[in-house]
Write a structure and sequence with these properties.
- The structure is a single chain.
- This protein is mostly helical and about 230 residues long.
- The protein has one domain: MFS general substrate transporter like domains (Growth Hormone, Chain: A).
- It is built from ten helices and no strands.
- Helix 4 packs antiparallel against helix 5.
- The chain is elongated, with a radius of gyration of 21 Å.
- The N terminus and C terminus are likely disordered.
């Protein structure tokens, strides 16, 4: 009878201290920065479109087009995630969607067609970050902590999304649509900066390699905790 592999029960705290805290920070921040503008903009799409001087048929067409482009962006990102790579896809997603939000802030009084094109570009390009919310947390953490890591990332991103959704109408009323779009762009670019420094590339790596840390001290820390648990 083949010997069964021993169960590895590492605590969440042990893994954070071993070096996974940086990855947890990356997942939490990039996830939060990618959902805050999306939740805020889509929750108040009619108000946002009205503030951008789109009303009547234009507003209806805009809402439909933006939703379709968001779905298309996610489909395209799903197809590109392996060929382009996780890191590069995330950086491009944040960069181009952030530029689209900047354009919306700068041209908030511009022609309706330009506004719709900029809004559509944002919906299309943010799809990469949305898709990677499901990919990254499941690849860069070991099995022992994966469920906890995904749960923490989800919880923190939803807190941020709720705060963003609550603040959007206040921002629209007190600051106006231009500054509101600039704030959304700033959040997106912050996600870009964090991803630039912390996002690992896991494409073409098996799951064991993708979730391992390069630091020798981290590996020895985990090994030490495993030996302690086995001795118990």
């Amino acid at each position: 009878m083949p010997k069964q592999a021993e169960s590895k029960n590492l605590s969440f705290g042990n893994l954070l201290h071993s070096g996974y805290g940086k990855r947890m920070a990356f997942v939490t921040i990039f996830w939060t920065c990618s959902v805050i503008p999306v939740f805020a903009v889509y929750a108040f799409a009619p108000k946002v479109l009205e503030a951008l001087h789109l009303s009547g048929d234009w507003a209806s067409y805009g809402s439909i087009a933006i939703t379709l482009l968001f779905v298309i962006g996610c489909i395209i990102a799903t197809r590109l995630v392996n060929s382009l790579g996780r890191r590069k896809l995330l950086l491009h997603s944040f960069l181009w969607s952030g530029l689209a939000l900047l354009l919306l802030g700068f041209l908030h009084d511009g022609p309706s067609m330009i506004i719709l094109l900029a809004f559509g570009a944002y919906a299309l390009f943010i799809g990469g970050a949305q898709v990677l919310q499901l990919v990254y947390p499941n690849e860069i953490f070991p099995t022992e902590i994966r469920a906890d890591a995904v749960g923490v990332g989800t919880s923190m991103s939803r807190v941020g999304a709720a705060a963003g959704t609550w603040l959007v109408p206040i921002s629209l009323q007190t600051l106006g649509i231009g500054p509101t779009m600039y704030i959304a762009a700033a959040i997106t670019f912050f996600g870009l900066a964090v991803s630039w420094f912390l996002a690992p590339e896991t494409a073409a790596r098996n799951l064991e390699d993708a979730c391992s840390l390069d630091e020798k001290n981290s590996q020895s820390y985990l090994a030490g905790n495993m030996s302690k648990r086995n001795s118990w």
